[in-house]
Amino acid sequence: MSEELAKEIEAANADLEGKTPQEILKWAMDKLHPSIALAWSGAEDVAVVDMMVKINPEARIFTLDTGRLNPETYDVIDRVRDKYNMNIEVMFPDSEKTEEMVRAQGMNLFYKSVDNRKLCCKIRKVQPLRRQLGTLDAWVTGLRADQAVTRTALKRVEIDEAFGGIIKVNPLAEWTHEQVWDYIKANDVPYNELHNNNYPSIGCAPCTRAVKEGEDIRAGRWWWESPDTKECGLHVKEK
Ligand code: SF4
To answer: Ligand 1 centroid to 141 CA: how many Å?
Structure first.
């Protein structure tokens, strides 16, 4: 990152201190649209979809179809598409790489080792994301600092070194789970039906399960792994 850009981002974070997610998004979209898009996971960051469309009906939203999503996730993608009358930019994994991986390692390779799980996430999520981010100057996420031990240092605006120094905007960085749900309910935002069945965090079907009372909200993601490995590579730098 250049020194100049680092200073600009530092100043932006200072200016955006105490601002609402909508103010953060407006700042980012005024500056960067149409080279900015939300990476929507089909989970609770539907709140961000609603906010962005209200700021600019031409807001760009993309999502990664790994080929292993739950039916409820496909359903909410279409419900959002219909409600906001928008095209969702759906990104798919490279078919040759996916076929090669599955033939070599099996359909459910991710249960066999962390390395296999990371390979699957890389081919099905990270590479399609990299392809999309290569066309943008900035991306928006629904990340929150309170979601995981891997996310406590999250800022409102960051330089994403993991994806070539692109700007990353996290308007919900300071929000809690409850604030997001208050927003979804108050604004009648379509959401993934799995949330009604104790799935607070939703990824691919074979890698997500419902959580039990009192469990961490990300306990259902890659539940067979330890908490410090539980990122798919979308929000951490590849080693
Ligand atoms: S979450 Fe599971 S199925 Fe989805 S890309 Fe990662 S390892 Fe593969």
So the answer is: 19
Pairwise CA distance, residues 33 & 59, whole Å:
8
Ligand 1 atom closest to residue 203's alpha carbon, by position in its atom list? 1
Ligand 1 close to Cβ of residue 110 (< 6 A): yes
Q: What is the pTM of this model?
A: 0.89
Give residue 41 CA to ligand 1 midpoint distance, Å: 13
Interatomic CA distance for residues 139 and 116, integer angstroms:
27
pLDDT digits (tens, 9 = 90+) for 10-39: 999 999 999 999 999 999 999 999 999 999
Confirm if 63 and 91 have CB atoms less than 8 A apart: yes
Q: Which class is domain 3-196?
A: alpha beta
- Residue 238 CB: number of other CB atoms within 10 A? 10
- 135-160 pLDDT, tens digit per residue, is 999 999 999 988 766 666 789 999 99
What is d(CA 153, CA 173) in angstroms, rounded to the nearest whole number? Answer: 9
Q: Domain ranges for the chain, please list them.
A: 3-196
The residue whose C-alpha atom lies closest to atom 5 belonging to ligand 1 is 121
**DSSP count for the chain of H helices, then E strands:** 8, 6
CA torsion through residues 156, 24, 185, 62, sign: negative
Residue 61 sits at φ, ψ, to 5 deg, of -125, 130
Ligand 1 centroid to 14 CA: how many Å? Answer: 36
